[in-house]
Specification:
Elements: H1 11-59, H2 65-68, E1 71-74, E2 82-86, E3 94-102, E4 108-111, E5 124-130, E6 136-141, H3 148-156, E7 163-169, E8 178-184, E9 197-201, E10 209-213, E11 218-222, E12 225-229, E13 233-238, E14 241-245, E15 254-260, H4 262-286, H5 303-316, E16 319-322, E17 333-336, E18 342-344, E19 350-352, H6 354-363, H7 365-373, H8 378-390, H9 396-454, H10 460-467
Antiparallel strand pairs: 1-15, 2-14, 3-11, 3-15, 4-8, 4-10, 5-6, 5-9, 7-8, 11-12, 13-14, 16-17, 18-19
Helix pairs in contact: 1-4, 1-8, 1-9, 4-5, 4-6, 5-8, 6-7, 9-10
Length: about 475
């Protein structure tokens, strides 16, 4: 039996075209596999890059001894009287005896009482406000705002106003419990103000000042010396130390002690050790290969990574100079990481022994700090290594990332080019088979016509069928 061609797009035709196109697409599949490998490598590279980024952030905390150090404050029984904040780069450790005798006060007034805070019964008038710009500002009060709450809102809505108004309920007189309080916004005599003048007319009730308080400074003793503070928030109470006074308690002194926070410093050093271990662990995993490993998608045997590992391991074994010899300032002594509790284990990772490190800090804080943060300390040497790989332009990280991205981009371009060629080839094959199918279809029709015309005698029909594959 001869071949029978299906209609255009039919089974045999479709399968024939499919097989030809599959053969044409083989190079594209190879390119897609190559792209997948490069993308896998890029993902690994981004992981590696993130470790360097984290490394740089951690090293920033070790750029000098001021950033390296951490302080803590112990207020003892004074934690209810004061709170303390400090700048660790300027504050100094020390111990101080403090006694808070009087809190700073602010200027304030309270009005007479009213039966309602909402009734507009004071009539027309105005309030004269003494502003922070050494001027005065008149606030007009119309009938709809002539209630205690209305006046408070008018005062509080004024820009640069040195006072704040509020309405309070005082049950000393239950029939007229509502009063207006106007207070300065800041404590201390230097912030004393002249209170607003209130003028009203044609009202149902009179407004008056019931009581007035003057501003005053805070009084305290520091190591037995009497100190006067201009407010309850004392900026630079000591160098690098600010204090907020919360409660006065005369004749109840307490001790404020500022010390180095060894635990927090240890946490920072442990973080640095973890960053080093992260880089070393990544490189070690890349070099662990077997017969199933696709080394084209990893950094196995990568010389640049091996260089990073070698330089980091090498510097971690060095001694770090400490220049604290007063008799011979130019000759340093060396301090080693194992003296600080940082050691290499058999698995190639670093271990950090916090107890040993804190003992080193306690016995030789300045020497330990310089060995880590000094000009030739471990942190600056690690930073020099890392910077060589992360600097913009010709740094290894940028060069390698650019190269991988370039290869992926080129592969995408090659795939796009070949896809266009396959599309063109597909169209050409479709047109070619369509024409062939059309010609054969016409021949079949002619054969059927001849068979019908000539009949089955004389063998004519057999000849036509043989020619057309029938």
């Amino acid at each position: 039996m001869g071949l029978r061609f299906d209609p255009v797009g039919g089974g045999q035709f479709k399968e024939a075209v499919k097989q030809m196109i599959e053969a044409e697409r083989a190079p594209i599949k190879n390119l897609e596999k190559a792209k997948a490998r490069e993308e896998a490598k890029m993902k690994l590279f981004q992981e590696f890059k993130s470790k360097f980024t984290g490394f740089e952030k951690t090293l920033a905390e070790f750029s000098n001894i001021k950033k390296f150090r951490e302080l803590k404050v112990d207020l003892g029984e004074g934690d209810k009287q004061v709170s303390v904040t400090f700048d660790k780069e300027t504050a100094q450790p020390g111990s101080y005896t403090i006694e808070v005798d009087q809190l700073a006060s602010r200027s304030s007034i309270i009005s007479n009482g009213f039966s309602s805070p909402d009734e507009a019964n004071l009539g027309l008038g105005y309030v004269v406000l003494n502003t922070a710009k050494d001027g005065s500002d008149e606030v007009f009060v119309d009938e709809k705002d002539s209630s205690l709450k209305g006046i408070a809102n008018l005062i509080n809505n004024r820009k640069d106003c040195p006072v704040h108004a509020s309405v309070i309920q005082d049950q000393t007189d239950p029939e007229r419990p509502w009063k207006l309080i106007v207070s300065a916004k800041n404590d201390g005599q230097s912030n004393a103000i002249e209170f607003p003048d209130f003028y009203f007319m044609d009202g149902k009730e009179d407004f008056s000042i019931g009581e007035e308080h003057e501003a005053g400074n805070a009084l305290m003793k520091v190591d037995g010396f009497e100190i006067e503070a201009g407010g309850n928030r004392i900026k630079e109470f000591l160098e690098g130390v600010s204090m907020d006074l919360k409660q006065a308690k005369p004749d109840a002194p307490f001790t404020m002690t500022i010390t180095e926070d060894y635990q927090k410093i240890s946490g920072k050093v442990k973080g640095l050790v973890d960053q080093v271990n992260g880089v070393l662990d990544f490189i070690n995993k890349q070099n662990q290969v077997d017969e199933k490993s696709d080394t084209k998608a990893t950094f196995a045997g990568d010389s640049s990574l091996q260089s990073v590992e070698y330089r980091i391991r090498n510097v971690m074994h060095e001694g770090f100079p400490v220049f604290d010899n007063k008799e011979d300032p130019g000759t340093p002594r060396l301090i080693f990481l194992n003296q600080m509790g940082i050691e290499f284990e058999k698995n190639g990772q670093l271990s950090f022994k916090e107890e040993k490190f804190t003992k080193a800090l306690g016995a030789d804080f300045n020497g330990t700090a310089e060995g880590i943060t000094g000009e030739y300390g471990i942190a600056n040497q690690l930073k020099e290594i890392i910077t060589g790989y992360t600097r913009s332009g010709n740094g290894l990280v940028n060069v390698r990332e650019t190269a991988i991205r370039s290869r992926i981009k080129q592969i995408d371009s090659d795939i796009a080019t070949k896809e266009r060629r396959v599309e063109q080839r597909t169209q050409a094959l479709t047109d070619q088979f369509s024409r062939l199918q059309s010609s054969l279809s016409n021949m079949q029709k002619q054969g059927q016509y001849l068979s019908a015309t000539m009949g089955g005698g004389g063998g004519g029909g057999n000849m036509v069928q043989q020619l057309l594959g029938g």
